[in-house]
Design brief:
By secondary structure, the chain is mostly helical. Helices cover 78% and strands 0% of the residues. α1 packs across α3 and α2 runs antiparallel to α3. The termini are far apart.
Length: 58
């Protein structure tokens, strides 16, 4: 995913999906590794930041 093409909405939606997967037992490290592979570091860093915030508030 090109770093200028993602919106806050796409980051939030993807982050919610990642949180759901983590709640089902999927490793956050594995998810973020695959996310970096397919979507790049900028998008992944934003998603990881949001996911960690959501998880810490739960």
């Amino acid at each position: 995913m090109h770093q200028k093409r993602f919106s806050g909405m796409s980051v939030m939606h993807y982050s919610e999906m990642v949180c759901s997967a983590v709640q089902l037992g999927v490793s956050l490290d594995d998810l973020m590794s695959e996310t970096r592979k397919y979507h790049g570091h900028d998008f992944s860093n934003r998603v990881e930041k949001v996911v960690k915030t959501i998880i810490s508030c739960s």
